[in-house]
Write a structure and sequence with these properties.
heterotrimer; A mainly alpha (about 300); B mainly alpha (about 325); C alpha+beta (about 550); A: about 300 residues; MetI-like fold; two-stranded antiparallel sheet; about 70% helix; C: about 550 residues; alpha+beta; seven-stranded mixed beta sheet
């Protein structure tokens, strides 16, 4: 699969300049962000920066047990200098530091897994739409099978069988969510394959890869982008739901979802503002995923939204 | 269309079979078998062998699979390899519970979500749309165990309005049942409605892009009419699809809600089955989930075709 | 019952004669002040004396009331819930078993035994033959009489190739079970064993009806008759009027599980359940400060262990094991992880809960990074992987603490968290460095025999000390207390320190934990037998409601 797509990319590169001039090339759309979109870009940029520098500027190591007490309230002083700005967690570690470290896990894993899911889902979906016949039949049945089983159960099966490591978590999330992407990609692929401009391209004798990259993909990009934002949220939640079953990220590594899970009990029995322990990582998740979706909203609903706005 | 439905049912049967193979292969890849899990820390090679012999686990795996398949086709789901109970007994009560809860959630959440989604799409960019977008995104992005636990701590422990666990025992009165099921109901409505609102809004705005809507606007048709008559009917297909997927999730994927509220449903049963490597149990629940999914998707497609006659004769 | 400190001794922790003196004193009208002064005169502190008297007064004031319903939530259940005593696994099974079945002998809070279905039992002089005289007039729930045949059938399920019993090794030294007459059976031993009655009091040896092979329903002689059993959902039992003794106080017992720890405690707070198993130690303060509920903590010998297999690297180096033992912050674990509800471990499985068999003379191993560094260097190990599953509440926290201390001595200890399901079959006893938890066993001998005997199938670290094996068998027949203590001390030293011929085992045992559960203040009659949750699962027969 990788070999052919690489080949296709090369082919594509060579031909770009020529075909850009052709009249049936997809129209380029100018992207202008609304204020919510800009807010989204700001928040995502913040977390992406955290991915790279978080561990270096965090006050403490993510695994550092500070020998104080569990679920200290925000602002609690630490023996020997320092402050738990967001309080301490179940294992007497600094929550702020763990959120900063956790950006790497949560943002990193969800991004990579969602991208991988798209790569697999779109490739397979378009392949099914273009090739039809047996390829479509086999891919679609396997896909239906995956889609019809609950994600948490598939996750349980794969992670328990193969062990819980970061590559396996990414792969598991990617395979599970690729099945939803496949459905969308295949549907759009089929729709576009019968469009006039594709038929005319076929009549011109263009190769199948030319059709995919120049016609099918650009036209399916918008609806797929809307889905991307939601899919990313689902991956973050999926990893955290694995932590509900005692799987997921290996301790002492921090990820926001399992931080919510493991500190959930604080809401029940921590004293004072220590009850906020699970709220901080939940806020981190919410800020990141909402920001992504605000950007996606601006990209995907742009034209439709504009039209509707015109009528108000 | 009858031909289409028939064809889809046949494909559904193939999917069921693929699922059974997939589940079988994956379950047998898991470390440890049901004997090792049941005997746990107290297992010895001797007792493991005895347990396997007593439960027919000493046959080759492939024999076990075809044995199961044969019985399944004749309607016999077998017995649990972990506790010896009949699978049909384990499932029957829980199936009802699951369907009851999923049905109630659907009845409440579908009208709310489609309505709010339409509202957001009619006034995009306004404060209504913005607050709905923020609200739904915030709810989608919070893990469901957080919402559920929060609800318990507030509604059951602090306020004492509702029981902390979803008591649905047969001896309960209707009022007890209603109170018992209220909390999982609230949490699930929140979880699924948020997503459906978003998809409805996106679907309608997507259709607003189409040339024929532009045509309608140019012709001077009123906005409400455009959205409710033209855009909405063309979006029914995708929306029904999202609703179907959410219903399938309500049947199979609500493990966390079932666990936190101790609600005896099928999703938790399947996880238990996987964790004890109880193959007949896992297979039976997988068949139910897959069957539900297949039926819901067929229904969604039929609904889409009925709503949009142009789809009846695809090019 | 919450007005005294759980860590202080209660009336139940006293020896039989002291206890009797105080109880009869109180019954005859001695005042609290008088009894306390006796106790203080005999060396007790005021707090200890106060605690003992309070508990004694509570126990006397408590005359069980009849009626009502108790709802109990355990921490685990599923399709593998079973009513087959031989396959019982978890608290939920044991509790159901206690409601519907009986044992031959019953275990007291101090781990001595008293008659249950066996009216009398005695051994010959050298403990090689035990005779059990069965109670007459006992009926099963189906109306049939309990006889010697039922005992023989029950016991036969713990022997032979086809037996799936989880406890067969405990009675493997009984060569033969013999029926003497319809109400007398004999156990012929292959080696002397003074502990057979207490072993028969453990949950796996509950008496079932001769010929029973199906366990979807329970036919026992116990105080409750099971009317509904749905594995993984719940069970209902009703008080049985044909019970052979006064017992079973409430009308209905509902047994279920709530697997989520927060949800389980919430259910107790909101009165949806009356009793719960496995209270998170971190929640103790909250429970104590909440009206209407209380903590039920019973000191026990249950322990957490890190197992370094002695036949592979890194555990094959005794120095590595020593390094891991010296980095354990035992007091910190008891204070922070167990919130005081436990005792420090000394790298052998016995603690003060085993009474006279505990070797208090053995020096306590302390946290010592210098020694740890020295031994680590000598072992040459620089990195290791510890496979961890949350097999007991706090296991992962203990591993995280070890990881952090290991870093200080230059050891890169990688923690590999593995799922609980499949742990016992795929990881424990198999991977080089893993974790274990053991419940308390009725005697120190049984405990060491299960987990350390050279031929034990569950020898955690594949450590084979023939000397220990010999001592285990010999000590069972010894009657002289001083001699017995000396032998038990040597065994604990062998495991923890080793001797000239043999290295110590690969076990690192940082702490023993109490069984910490919680209950509504409306429930009384929960015992303090330390072999399991809520007083060794004995509550179904004795618990009662104060508000009926």
């Amino acid at each position: 699969m990788t070999d052919t797509s690489q080949a296709a990319e090369i082919e594509n590169d060579q031909e770009t300049t020529i075909y850009d001039e052709l009249p049936d090339a997809p129209p380029k759309k100018q992207l202008k962000l609304t204020w919510t979109g800009k807010l989204g870009v700001g928040v995502v940029a913040f977390w992406v920066i955290m991915v790279f520098i978080g561990p270096y500027i965090a006050p403490y190591d993510q695994a550092e047990i500070l020998d104080m007490d569990s679920y200290l309230p925000p602002g609690a002083p630490i023996d020997g200098g320092g402050t738990h700005w967001l309080g301490s967690d179940k294992n007497e570690r600094d929550i702020l530091s763990r959120i900063m470290w956790g950006a790497r896990m949560t943002v990193g894993i969800s991004f990579v897994a969602t991208l991988l899911a798209y790569l697999m889902g779109v490739t397979a979906g378009i392949a099914a739409a273009v090739k039809k016949g047996w390829t479509d039949m086999i891919l679609s049945r396997i896909n239906d099978a995956i889609l019809s089983l609950p994600t948490i159960m598939l996750g349980l099966l794969i992670v328990v069988a193969l062990g819980s490591s970061i590559p396996i978590l990414i792969g598991t999330a990617a395979v599970i969510y690729a099945s939803s992407v496949y459905r969308i990609a295949r549907a759009y692929g089929q729709e576009i394959m019968v469009m006039d401009y594709v038929e005319s391209a076929q009549a011109r004798g263009e190769t199948i890869w030319w059709i995919i990259f120049r016609e099918v993909l650009p036209n399916a990009a918008m609806p797929l982008a809307t889905d991307f934002g939601l899919r990313l949220v689902f991956v973050v939640l999926f990893i955290s739901s694995l932590s509900f079953l005692g799987l997921g990220i290996q301790p002492p590594d921090a990820d926001w979802g399992s931080m919510v899970r493991s500190n959930l009990e604080a809401m029940q029995f921590a004293e004072g503002w220590g009850v906020l322990a699970p709220i901080w990582p939940a806020l981190a998740i919410a800020s990141f995923t909402i920001a992504i979706n605000l950007i996606v909203d601006d990209i995907s609903a742009k034209s439709g939204g504009d039209l509707a706005k015109k009528m108000i | 269309m009858q031909r289409m439905v028939l064809q889809r049912i046949l494909i559904g049967l193939v999917t069921l079979w693929v699922v059974s193979v997939l589940v079988f292969v994956m379950t047998s890849l898991l470390p440890g078998d049901v004997a090792a899990i049941v005997l746990g820390q107290s297992a010895t090679p001797e007792t493991l062998a005895a347990y396997r012999a007593a439960n027919g686990l000493d046959q080759p795996l492939i024999f076990q699979y075809f044995g199961w398949l044969g019985n399944m086709v004749t309607g016999d789901l077998g017995v649990s390899k972990a506790g010896g109970a009949k699978i049909s007994d384990l499932i029957s009560g829980r199936l009802g519970n699951t369907m009851f809860l999923a049905g109630l959630v659907a009845i409440i959440s579908v009208p709310i979500s489609v309505g709010l989604g339409l509202l957001a799409a009619m006034y995009p960019g306004t404060w209504i749309d913005r607050s709905l977008t923020f609200g739904t995104l915030a709810l989608i992005s919070v893990p469901d165990f957080f919402i559920a636990t929060f609800a318990v701590l507030v509604l059951a422990v602090q306020l004492g309005w509702l029981p902390a666990i979803a008591n649905v025992a047969p001896e309960n009165t209707f009022w007890q049942m209603a109170r018992g099921i209220a909390m999982p109901l609230i949490v699930l409505v929140i979880v699924v409605a948020a997503q459906m609102i978003r998809m409805t809004r996106a679907g309608i705005l997507n259709v607003m892009n189409s040339p024929y809507i532009e045509m309608a606007i140019l012709k001077g048709v009123k906005k409400k009419r455009i959205i409710l008559r033209h855009a909405f009917f063309n979006t029914i297909g995708p929306i029904v699809n999202v609703i179907a997927l959410n219903l399938a999730y309500l049947v199979s994927g609500v493990v966390i809600v079932e666990t936190i509220f101790s609600y005896p449903g099928l999703a938790k049963l399947m996880i238990d089955g996987v964790q004890t490597r109880d193959l007949p149990l896992v297979q039976a629940t997988a068949m139910i989930f897959c069957g539900t999914y297949v039926i819901l998707i067929i229904l969604a497609d039929v609904a889409a075709i009925l709503a949009n006659p142009r789809l009846r004769n695809p090019k | 019952m919450t007005d005294f400190d759980k860590n202080l001794p209660t009336i139940n922790s006293l020896s039989g004669s002291d206890r009797e003196t105080i109880e009869t004193g109180l019954q005859r009208g001695a005042t609290r002040r008088e009894v306390m002064s006796w106790l203080i005169a005999s060396g007790a502190t005021i707090a200890v004396a106060g605690s003992i008297v309070t508990s004694a007064q509570n126990a006397l004031a408590a005359t069980p009331k009849k009626g009502g319903k108790i709802k109990f939530a355990s921490d685990l259940h599923g399709p593998s819930d079973t009513l087959d005593p031989g396959l019982n696994t978890s608290t939920i099974d044991y509790s159901r078993g206690r409601a519907v079945y009986n044992s031959l002998c019953q275990i007291n809070d101090d781990l001595s035994t008293r008659p249950e279905l066996a009216e009398e039992y005695s051994a010959n002089d050298n403990n090689t033959e035990w005779t059990f005289k069965l109670r007459k007039g006992v009926k099963f729930h189906d109306g049939s009489a309990f006889t010697a045949d039922d005992v023989l059938y029950t016991m036969s399920r713990h022997y032979g190739e086809k037996s799936t019993s989880k406890a067969k090794s405990l009675v493997a030294d009984v060569k033969e079970w013999k029926k003497v007459d319809s109400h007398t059976v004999k156990a012929i031993m292959s080696s002397p064993n003074a502990d057979l009655p207490v072993i028969l009091g453990t949950p796996h040896f509950k008496m079932i009806k001769d010929g029973t092979t199906e366990f979807q329903e329970a036919n026992g002689t116990g105080p409750y008759r099971m009317t509904e059993f749905k594995p993984g959902v719940r069970s209902l039992s009703e008080r049985w009027n044909g019970y052979w003794r006064e017992g079973g106080n409430v009308d209905v017992i509902e047994i279920t599980a709530i697997t989520d720890t927060v949800a389980r405690l919430s259910a107790l707070f909101s009165n949806d359940i009356d009793l719960m198993q496995a209270l998170d130690p971190k929640a103790i303060r909250k429970v104590e400060n909440t009206d209407g509920v209380g903590v039920w903590s019973v000191a026990s010998g249950a322990y957490f262990g890190l197992c370094a297999l002695t036949d592979v690297s890194p555990g094959d180096s005794p120095d590595f094991v020593l390094a891991m033992q010296y980095i354990q912050r035992r007091k910190k674990i008891v204070k922070s992880v167990l919130k005081g509800q436990g005792t420090v471990g000394n790298d052998h499985p016995i603690n003060v809960a085993y009474g006279a068999d505990f070797c208090s003379e053995l020096p306590q191993r302390e946290h010592d990074l210098d020694k740890a560094k020295f031994h680590l260097k000598k072992s040459g190990v620089t990195a290791a992987q510890l496979d961890v599953a949350e097999v007991g509440p706090g296991m992962t926290d203990i591993a995280l603490l070890a990881q952090r201390e290991a870093k200080k001595i230059g050891l890169d200890l990688k923690i590999n968290k593995v799922p609980n399901d499949g742990y016992w079959g795929a990881v424990w006893l198999k991977t080089p460095f893993n974790v274990v938890t053991w419940n308390m066993r009725p005697t120190a001998n049984v405990m060491m025999n299960l987990a350390f005997a050279p031929d034990a199938p569950w020898n955690d670290t594949k450590w084979k000390s023939e000397r220990l094996g010999k001592l285990l068998v010999e000590s069972r027949g010894v009657k002289d207390a001083a001699k017995r203590h000396e032998m038990y001390c040597e065994m604990q030293r062998l495991i923890s320190v080793g001797d000239d011929d043999m290295r110590p085992s690969g076990m690192i045992i940082p702490a023993h934990r109490n069984y910490v559960d919680a209950k509504s203040d409306k429930i009384e009659g929960i015992g303090r037998m330390p072999l399991g949750s809520l007083g060794g699962y004995e509550w179904p027969e004795f618990a009662w409601r104060t508000d009926v």
